[in-house]
Input
Amino acid sequence: MSTESPGSHDEGAAVAALQDVYESIRQELARIIVGQERIVRLLLACLLARGHCLLIGVPGLAKTLLVKTLSQCLQLTFRRIQFTPDLMPADIVGSEIIQENEGRLDFEYQSGPVFAHLVLADEINRTPPKTQAALLEAMQERHVTVAGQTRDLPDPFLVVATQNPIEQEGTYPLPEAQLDRFMFSLNVGYPDKPEEVEIVRRTTVRSLPEVTPCIRAEDIVNAQVLIQSAPVTDHVVDYAVEVAKATRPGDASAPQVTHDYVEWGAGPRASQYLILGAKAVALLSGKLTPEIEHVREVAEPVLRHRVITNYRATGAGVSADQVIEEILKTVPQESY
Output
């Protein structure tokens, strides 16, 4: 099933087609992945909004299986990079090697695993900053430069990076400026008991079923264009900016929870991602124009890695998610 580009057919039909595709993807993934429907929805929204995603969760929660299955469902090329302390930038972006050609030696470029539609950067905080930066530059620019030559990455292009929140020894935490490259930060939690029972049943008695593709790469690009061109009303943009401003302790209009517990708030990129994310989840819901409820739906994943709490928050046991929850209460949607 395909979606239509906004310039050639009715946008309403394109939105309806995209919603149908999303339902097919959701059903197909449910054959492999138990639960995690919100994670799936936001991962798709991130891809359609041309963003990148950080998945945080303990080992064994099927993060790799989820991303790999999603790539099969979307007919995207998939590469997994295991980040280790000895990983070098060339191991990601590729390098030139010397090859013998008709009696003479020539340099030949061999591309790295970043040349895929969907790249899983597994345990990205296990590699030194120099190597992290090589991937993050590719995420930002959507091309790599090796030996003075620039090479474009595939389109669409999505990086999903994973981090283990409980194991910190031997890791290199991403600086805030690099975390800001990720559109969403998603917490993958433990399954509840019925879900875990189903996981055990599926994975211990038979092999997983084959995945049926639901959409093509070119259709995803068309959907991305549709999202970019989707209109947004002024009051929704104002609300998104007001939410982002409310995270900044230097802003006089920020609520008391921000002044008490936040060291640094979210920058303008957060406002942009709130709107892009709202557009994407709105279209997945069958609506061309996002509402304030869609901004609120993506507020936590957009803001949680951009709100840096202070020592008072650490002492009081207050997390960034709790701060964001209080901020959303102080900027009520009824006011808009």
Notes: The chain has 14 helices and eleven strands. Residues 136 and 178 are 7 Å apart (CA to CA). The chain has two domains: 11-220, 230-335. The radius of gyration is 21 Å.
